[in-house]
What we know:
Low-confidence stretches: none
Strand order of the largest sheet: 1-2-3-5-4
Mean pLDDT: 95
Number of domains: 1
CATH superfamily: HIT-like
Radius of gyration: 14 Å
Shape: globular
Amino acid sequence: MDCIFCQIIAGKLPSEILYQDEEVFAFRDISPQAPTHLVIIPKKHIPSLIDLTGEELPLIGHMVDVAYKLAQKEGIAESGYRLAINCGPWGGQLVPHLHMHLIGGRQLSGRLG
């Protein structure tokens, strides 16, 4: 598969694995936008947020829960952090595999774009 995130999950590309279970996988972003910048992805290839089926919707809640646990582990849960899911090219989604960014470790701008 050409999907870079699927290759990371399969162990074909290196990553610093921070968390994984049957449904999700988390690793450090290779181009961090802040001191803490993690990526949380479903193991199942889902191209984008709009491609989620009704029965897959609980996956987003699980990803948020994993993000919170990772924020605690990284020491940024109390000071605050940002969760972002980009959707489609105009939404800034660069990799066509659903993913959530966990960003923190410094004061973030109130601007989103």
